[in-house]
Design goal:
Blueprint: E1 16-23, H1 35-52, E2 56-57, E3 60-61, E4 63-69, H2 73-86, E5 88-93, H3 98-111, E6 114-117, E7 133-135, H4 140-153, E8 158-164, H5 167-182, E9 186-194, E10 199-200, H6 204-210, E11 215-219, H7 222-234, E12 243-246, H8 257-263, E13 267-272, H9 283-297, H10 309-329, E14 338-339, E15 348-349, H11 352-360, E16 363-366, E17 369-372, E18 385-393, E19 401-410, E20 417-418, E21 446-451, E22 459-460, H12 463-467, E23 474-477, E24 482-483, H13 485-497, E25 500-506, H14 512-520, E26 526-527, H15 535-540, H16 575-595, H17 598-601, H18 606-617, H19 629-642
Parallel strand pairs: 1-4, 1-5, 5-6, 6-7, 8-9, 8-11, 11-12, 12-13, 21-25, 21-26
Antiparallel strand pairs: 2-3, 9-10, 13-18, 14-15, 16-17, 18-19, 19-20, 22-24, 23-25
C-alpha cells in the first residue's frame, strides 16, 4: 500500500491569504480514499495559478494557509483565530462538513470576509442569509429530489432510512421524509447510527429482517457508511435480500475480495462536475491546475480521469474568491484595508459590503462547469448534475471490482437516463439483471398461516384427534391433517412462491375479529378464511383479492326461453275484438255527428266527433260534448263497453248527464 504523503508546495511571504479547511485523510494508507488530498492540491494549484497569471492585490500576490480539521469545530475555529491574528485573511475555502460550516461562517461574517465551501451539502446551509457564505457543491435537497425521481421511475413504494446523528444526517432524513410523504412513498423504518459510538441503538439485524421493505437508503459520511457496510456484511444483510443506496461513495480499500463480491449491486448517488456529463467547462484552467499539481506533487496525482469531484469544486471555490478580490481591487478604493488588526475577534474587513455584492453577482466558467451565484440563495445556480454509480466487476479479473457510472440526472429532469446513452448496465445484488421489486420476497421464508375449520374450504380429516389436548387458542398442525379447497390453493401458492407454510389451527369458538387482530398483532402472518371486509378490519390489516367472489341472492326457477313478438301489445284482446273496437269508434262518431242539430253540424265535423269518441275511450277530457239524448246514449253505451276496471257510476265523462 502507498504510504501517507507529505506535501511540499511553495509558500510566499505575502500577507494577503486564503485559508483552506480540509479534513484529515481517514485512512493514511489508502490509495483511493484520498479525496481530501485531491481538494488540498487543487486549492493550492488555484492560488499558485493566480500568481502565474500575475494577479496581484495592491501589489501583493495571494498566498494560502491550510488547516487540517479533526471533526471538532471548536478546535478548527481556534486554529482559524490563530491564522487570522497573524495575516490578512480575505477568505475561507471550506470547511468540508456542514457542522463546521455554521461556526466558521459566523466567524467569517464577523471578519467581513467570505467563506466558500466545496463539499458541505446540508440544505440548511441554503438559508444562511448573512451574505458571507456560499457553497460550490449542490445542496442535498437536489439529491433527495433525484432519489425521489428514481423511486418513481422504478416504482419503488417503500424504503428504510439509515442516518447518522448529526446535522448532515438529520437534515437528510428530514428532507427524505418530506419528499417521500408528498409522493406517498412509505418510510417503513428510520434507523439512527451513533457516530460517536459507531453503532446502532437498536437490534439492527432484526429490524431490517422483520421489515417488509427491501430498499435501504444510507445517509451518512464515508467513515460512518463504511462502518455500516461492514456491520451489514457481518450480519449477512448485503446481497440478495436488500438494495443499498448510499449518499456517499465509499472507498473499497478496507474491504477484502470476499467483502467486495458481497457488496456487488450497491448504488451510490453523488454530484458530478461538468466533464462527467459532457457539459462545457474551463479546460484551460483545468490543464494549468493539473500541470501545477503534477509539478509539485506528482506522486499524489491519480491521473486526469481519477481526480475526485470535490477537488474540482475546491478549485472553483478558490477561483471564485480570487476573481471577487480581483474585481474588488479594480475599484477606486483601498481594497485590502482592515481595522482592529491587533485583535482577531474584533478584526474587520472594511470593504465587506462591496465584497459580498460582487460574489452575489459572480458568474464564470470553472473547471466543474459554469459557476453562478445569486442573492436569493447560497446555492450554486443552474448546471447541477448527479450520477448513480453501481458497484460491479469491471473486467474478468477476479479482484477488479469497482464503481461503474450507470445513470445520470440533472435538476428539473423527470427521469434518470443511462450514462453515455448505454443500455441498462446495472448489476443488482446477487449479480441479477432484473430490477428488484423493493419489498420483502416470500421465497424461502416461513409463512405462519392461521385457519379455522370451515367445510368445504377447510375439512379436518379427524377433528376429534386434531382438537384433542388443544389447550391454547391456536395449535400448529401438519398440512396433511386437513383437506379442502383452501388446501389446494395453499399447495399451488407454495409451489409457485417457494415459501414454507406453518399451519396454525384456531379453535372452532374463535371469532373472526380475533383472527384479524392476530394478524395485526403479529401472532401469525396471514389467515385463509371466508370473511366480510368492513371499515374497522380494513384499518387493521390488508385484504387480498377475493379467491371466490360471492354475494347473497334469491333463487328462482329458470324461465323458459321466450321469443319476442313485435305485436305483443295486442295480446290482451283477440283480433275480432280489436276489429270490433276499430269499427265502433268511427261508426259511433258518425252517428253522434248525425244526431247533432243541423246548426251545430255546420261547425262540427265527423272528425271532431270521432276524436271525441277516442278521448272518451282513453278517459280524457275534450272540448266537444254530445248535446242530444241520442248522442249521450251512444256515448254511455260506448263507455259501458270499454270500461271494465271501474264501475259505470264512477266514470268521469262530463258529457253524460242523464
Amino acid at each position: 500500500m502507498e504510504k501517507a504523503v507529505e506535501l511540499h508546495w511553495p509558500v510566499r511571504s505575502s500577507m494577503v491569504k486564503l485559508i483552506g479547511f480540509f479534513p484529515s485523510q481517514a485512512d493514511k494508507h489508502s490509495k483511493t480514499n484520498m479525496w481530501s488530498i485531491h481538494c488540498r492540491s487543487m486549492f493550492k494549484s488555484a492560488v499558485i495559478l493566480s500568481q502565474q497569471y500575475n494577479i496581484t492585490f495592491q501589489g501583493q500576490y495571494l498566498d494560502y494557509e491550510e488547516i487540517i480539521t479533526e471533526d471538532d469545530a471548536l478546535i478548527t475555529l481556534d486554529h482559524a483565530c490563530q491564522k487570522v491574528s497573524t495575516s490578512n485573511i480575505v477568505g475561507f475555502v471550506g470547511p468540508a462538513y456542514s457542522n463546521e460550516v455554521r461556526i466558521l461562517t459566523l466567524f467569517a461574517f464577523r471578519l467581513g470576509i467570505l467563506s466558500i465551501s466545496y463539499s458541505a451539502t446540508s440544505p440548511g446551509l441554503s438559508t444562511i442569509d448573512n451574505g458571507a457564505f456560499y457553497h460550490i457543491i449542490p445542496s442535498d435537497e437536489n439529491i433527495v429530489i433525484g432519489i425521489a425521481v428514481l423511486f418513481q421511475q422504478y416504482t419503488w413504494k417503500s424504503c428504510i432510512i439509515i442516518y447518522q446523528n448529526d446535522d448532515y444526517g438529520y437534515s437528510g432524513m428530514k428532507l427524505l421524509s418530506q419528499k417521500f410523504s408528498e409522493l406517498n412513498i412509505k418510510i417503513s423504518e428510520k434507523i439512527k447510527f451513533d457516530i460517536h459510538q459507531q453503532n446502532f441503538e437498536i437490534d439492527f439485524k432484526k429490524t431490517l429482517l422483520d421489515n417488509f421493505s427491501r430498499i435501504v437508503i444510507v445517509w451518512a459520511t464515508a467513515t460512518s457508511t463504511k462502518t455500516i457496510l461492514n456491520m451489514s456484511i457481518q450480519e449477512k444483510l448485503i446481497g440478495p435480500s436488500f438494495v443499498w443506496l448510499l449518499s456517499t461513495t465509499v472507498a473499497l480499500d478496507d474491504f477484502d475480495l470476499r467483502q467486495k463480491q458481497e457488496l456487488i449491486g450497491i448504488l451510490t448517488v453523488e454530484s458530478v462536475e461538468a466533464d462527467s456529463v459532457d457539459v462545457p467547462r474551463n479546460i484551460t484552467l483545468l490543464k494549468k491546475a493539473y500541470e501545477i499539481w503534477k509539478y509539485y506533487e506528482s506522486e499524489t496525482f491519480p491521473g486526469e480521469t481519477n481526480v475526485n469531484s470535490n477537488a474540482m469544486f475546491a478549485f472553483d471555490a478558490t477561483w471564485s474568491l480570487i476573481l471577487a478580490l480581483q474585481q474588488l481591487c479594480s475599484m477606486p478604493l483601498s481594497c485590502l484595508e482592515f481595522k482592529n488588526v491587533s485583535n482577531y475577534y474584533n478584526r474587520q474587513f472594511l470593504n465587506s459590503k462591496q465584497y459580498y455584492n460582487i460574489m452575489r453577482a459572480m458568474t464564470f466558467l470553472g473547471v466543474s462547469g459554469e459557476v453562478k451565484f445569486s442573492n436569493r440563495t447560497t446555492d450554486r445556480v443552474d448546471n447541477t448534475y448527479y450520477m448513480i454509480n453501481n458497484l460491479q466487476p469491471l473486467s474478468e479479473e477476479l479482484n477488479d471490482i469497482g464503481y461503474l457510472p450507470v445513470l445520470t440526472w440533472h435538476v428539473g429532469a423527470n427521469e434518470w437516463t443511462y450514462n453515455n446513452n448505454k443500455s441498462d448496465s446495472i448489476l443488482w445484488p446477487s449479480r441479477l439483471r432484473n430490477r428488484p421489486s423493493g419489498y420483502k420476497l416470500i421465497q424461502g421464508q416461513e409463512l405462519r398461516m392461521a385457519i379455522i375449520e370451515s367445510p368445504p374450504f377447510i375439512i379436518l380429516k379427524n377433528a376429534t384427534a386434531t382438537y384433542y389436548n388443544m389447550t391454547h387458542n391456536y395449535k400448529n398442525i401438519n398440512i396433511t391433517e386437513f383437506d379442502g379447497f383452501y388446501k389446494d390453493i395453499l399447495l399451488y401458492l407454495q409451489d409457485k412462491m417457494g415459501f414454507s407454510p406453518i399451519i396454525m389451527l384456531a379453535k372452532p369458538s374463535t371469532q373472526y375479529n380475533e383472527l384479524v387482530e392476530g394478524v395485526s398483532k403479529n401472532l401469525f402472518d396471514t389467515v385463509m378464511i371466508t370473511i366480510v371486509i368492513n371499515a374497522k378490519r380494513k384499518t387493521m390489516v390488508d385484504f387480498g383479492t377475493p379467491i371466490i367472489p360471492h354475494s347473497i341472492r334469491i333463487i328462482i326457477r329458470k324461465p323458459r326461453s321466450v321469443q319476442l313478438d313485435p305485436l305483443f301489445f295486442l295480446k290482451p284482446f283477440s283480433l275480432d275484438v280489436w276489429l270490433f273496437i276499430l269499427a265502433t269508434i268511427p261508426c259511433t262518431g258518425a252517428l253522434i255527428w248525425y244526431f247533432e242539430p243541423k246548426e251545430k253540424r255546420k261547425s262540427v265535423t265527423i272528425i271532431h266527433t270521432i276524436n271525441f269518441i277516442i278521448h272518451t275511450v282513453l278517459d280524457k277530457d275534450h272540448s266537444f260534448t254530445a248535446s242530444t239524448a241520442s248522442g249521450k246514449f251512444l256515448t254511455l253505451g260506448l263507455a259501458n263497453m270499454i270500461i271494465g276496471e271501474k264501475p259505470i257510476l264512477s266514470c268521469k265523462y262530463k258529457s253524460i248527464s242523464l
